[in-house]
Design brief:
The structure is a homotetramer. Chain A is 75% helix and 0% strand. By secondary structure, the first copy, chain A, is mostly helical. Chain A has two domains: 47 residues, Homeodomain-like (Arc Repressor Mutant, subunit A); 116 residues, Tetracycline Repressor, domain 2 (Orthogonal Bundle), CATH 1.10.357. In chain A, helix 5 packs antiparallel against helix 7 and helix 7 crosses helix 8. The structure holds a DNA duplex.
DNA sequence: AATGAATGAGGTTTCATTCAT
DNA sequence: AATGAATGAAACCTCATTCAT
């Protein structure tokens, strides 16, 4: 049993059953290990949770963002959205996001990560808008405003339950709204 | 001590310290009452939490929405946003929102309320957009799309830490982007 | 079950089995009570131990000292010694003394009580010597020195295992050594 | 790491933090070694504690007692006292004494050592008194009683916090009290 | 309407110990 | 000679709950 395996399982509990259900007992049981064994790897539960934040934080930081800007506007928006969707739905990251979501109002560590994720998405959205405008695919509008509109709408969609079709319709509408 | 006082204090704990810190002991202590006394008012903790959801749900339902559509577009958007802001920041509702936020991925009751709040905001946003378009204050665009853009951006803003000035700048930009 | 009963039993464990054997589990078992019940009466184990020191301290303070100085020297010394013996052997106080003995080098609370007990005995010893000298029953010697000799010898005896006969022989020898 | 180093450190824990704080974990930590390593040197904790008693016992046995009886009474008493003081204050022995002190009422091994130490001091005290009397430096009094008085007073002093000056004053008073 | 007293279950953590390496 | 990894038992403590008063 490695630290990472423990963290992965801890994340799964938080995602599936809620932060308050993450107990050392439950964690040990799911890992087929005795409670005391966990204390060989982590000094305390608090310590483990801390590692959980760091773990997720690092994974997030490793999510590179590359978009092929030679495609048309709708395609670019779609790929951007898909990139973010990949973050929110990846089994690797979903548990971290669930932790953040549940704790962001309570725990500063969670809030900080939540914030930096939000800012990252916003920055990428802004960059895409600027590019689309500079390449004349979008009309010459306030790229900062478009960035916020696209980022926020995407964020809300990613946290809700939308069908892929509906997402596509939204992106297509968004693209045509601002296209040249 | 009334049921409402208990619920209010329970909400405060959830908002200030987190859902997992809502314990009968903590609640009793904050109310200067003995633990056993709480069982006179609520059959169980589960019961109390249930009442908490109902309590918040009812308060939400009582938030009427009236906008004076004779004003100009920016003013209408601003008042709409302020209405939502009132919900998110009111001391009465903030603890309920915190509960919803923390539990919406775990507890169906929370998810349902979260969803209906989201849909309510969305519906109001749509209605405003339709009205602005029908009154020729906004160009004849897809009201459903504009509704989503405004609602989502507002939602994200309301959950983050934006200054009033920044909010105003956003609304003004939004208005001028789609104005006739 | 009262606080005093708990403290009494806790003292018994310390006396009979040692300070390190005073556990909440053992205590509950001896009291025919569940562990959790003890936490209704004391916030924590530390808290309970604190109460134990106070409990013993108060009992000590209530030990009045009265000697009839009309008797002869040997009788007075003997009664004084018996008074101290009463402290060390009384079932009520013995457990407290055992706690003090075991912890006086480690725990300041214990050291303070130990010290005040030692000083009390010394002060009574001094007073007896002064009286015996002033009444011409003892020769005109350094009462302060005699006080220390009698107090120290008594203290050592009370902590060891001496027979009553041996104690009496000691006191009689001591009396005749300094008598007029 | 040798057995002796382990015992030394174990003694230090007992002296500084108390018998109940002597744990394998704490011991390993202070020795910058992993817990499991200690089991290479000692079969069990009980075993180690046993060794601790033996260790101390042997050290005690090696404390030779020699006094130059050609000196005057005060000097002889002083040297005797200093010899005992050396035992109680030596860094080598202090931790063993602390162990004995804490456990003498609980653990027979501790009680036996405590007793033999007490008897050794008493025997030495008696011998000194006999010698002083036989050499006419002390009056012809009950050497057995004087032995007890000096031994007990010294013992109490050595366990308390007396200044060197005060000790000297006591010895000088004691000497003049019984001198020819 | 409130509480004193108790409890079973389960929480986090520490303990001494083992064993393969 | 030492350690990484694990564990059963037991430590302290908190939880929601009950019930007679």
């Amino acid at each position: 049993m490695t630290k990472d395996e423990i963290l992965e399982e801890a994340g799964a509990i938080i995602r599936d059953e809620g932060y308050d259900m993450l107990t050392i007992s439950a964690l040990a049981q799911r890992l087929n290990v005795k409670k005391a064994s966990l204390y060989y790897h982590f000094e305390s539960k608090e310590n483990l949770i801390d590692a959980l934040y760091v773990h997720f934080s690092q994974k997030l930081a490793h999510m590179g963002f590359r978009v092929d800007f030679s495609k048309d506007a709708e395609e670019i928006l779609f790929r951007t959205y898909e990139h973010w969707r990949g973050i929110f739905l990846s089994p690797e990251l979903s548990s971290g996001l669930s932790l953040i979501e549940q704790r962001k109002e309570i725990d500063e560590r969670a809030y900080d990560i939540y914030n930096s994720l939000r800012l990252m998405i916003r920055a990428q959205s802004d960059a895409v808008m600027e590019n689309l405008i500079s390449r004349n695919r979008f009309r010459n509008l306030d790229s900062f405003l478009l960035g916020e509109l696209f980022a926020s709408s995407s964020l809300v969609r990613l946290q809700g339950e939308y069908t892929k079709e509906d997402d596509e319709k939204f992106i297509s509408s968004f693209a045509s709204l601002f296209s040249t």
